[in-house]
Amino acid sequence: MFNFPIIDLKRLDSSKSEKEELRRGLTDVGFFYVKNWGLTNAELEEIETLTRQVFTASDAEQNKLASYVGEMAHSFYLFDMDSKFVQQVDPNLKLDVKKIDEKFWKMFLAMKNTGLELLTWFEKIFDLKEGRLRDQFASDPVCCLHGNYYDKTPKGEWGIESHLDKGLITLLYQDQTGGLEAEYEGKWYPIPPIEGTLIINLGRMLEYFTHGVAKGAWHRVKAHKGDRISWPFFLNPSFDAKFGRLDEFKWNAEEFEALEKKRRINVSGTYEPGTEFGSGTYRDWHNKYVVNADEHRRNKGHLKIWEMEEPSKAEVDGPNEKSSLQVRPNQWRKPNTRIYM
Ligand SMILES: [Fe+2]
């Protein structure tokens, strides 16, 4: 068992020990829990019930949700896998798509606010000028919420293989099944569910921009006890954000470079794609590695993904282009075309 930091957002302002735990999570562990982030336990229970309904509904009902014009754009895809799902479909289940859209929009906003609040706290912890991270990288962040359904993972396979997230921050709510693990100093540790909390892990971009001072941690999922649902929220940079490293962290450049050399190979023995950022914008990176993910993706997994995005954030080519989300097919697709994880 490893002692992952647990931070009470309501106490952060007044408590030195909470700030120290946040610093440990940010710079040493790369994973931490947060409490009091916005949704009540009753609301989270409802989120779980609705998500189970979405995943057990017929294709026709899922298509209804995918074509519903509400607060968010909904779509579905399968992550790459070979074996069949055992999950049962209920042909009589009717989805309340309006309610689903509204409830998940609330969750989306609460997670987005928490992510931005954390970026502000990171600025304080790192003693940066106010707005240094938020203004440069997240003035209009590209955000995405998933409902991830993992079947009980077949022997010898992974729910999702070991990987580093690519964006700035990932905020994850998980059900009580367990199965998430993170690597710390070469060993793997479970991240057990703690009711009502979010799990935060730092993405490859935040790590890169800070010369590795903010730590990205490898993680993986195996739902070995039974099926599992999790809700990761990906806080990515604004489309126009420039991929520049911050000089305030240059003192760590050499050490980070050495670490990078060691980690260019992932557990599958393949190069981890999309982890070199150059000096373009997030839009450049997104067009290369998200829009055209198929040719770059290497990780494998055994999961179905329900993806929710703000329609306005789907613009890739420019503000006047038609959103790519509006022309997506409304069915489970395989292989996936996204690599947010
Ligand atoms: Fe991930």
What can you tell me about this protein's structure?
With 341 residues, the chain is of the alpha+beta class. The chain has a single domain, classed as Jelly Rolls, CATH 2.60.120.330. Helix content is 29%, strand content 20%. Strands 1-2-9-6-11-4-12-3 form an eight-stranded mixed beta sheet. Helix 1 links the parallel strand 1 (6-8) and strand 2. The radius of gyration is 19 Å and the shape is globular. It starts with 5 loop residues before the first strand and ends in a 32-residue tail after the last strand. Residues 163, 165, 170, 219, 341 line the site of fe (ii) ion.
Provide key terms for this protein.
341 residues; alpha+beta; Jelly Rolls; 8-stranded mixed beta sheet; 4-stranded antiparallel beta sheet; 8 helices; binds fe (ii) ion
In short:
InterPro entries: DIOX_N (IPR026992), IPNS-like_FE2OG_OXY (IPR044861), IPNS-like_sf (IPR027443), Iron_ascorbate_oxido_reductase (IPR050231), Oxoglu/Fe-dep_dioxygenase_dom (IPR005123). The chain is α+β, with helices and mostly antiparallel strands.
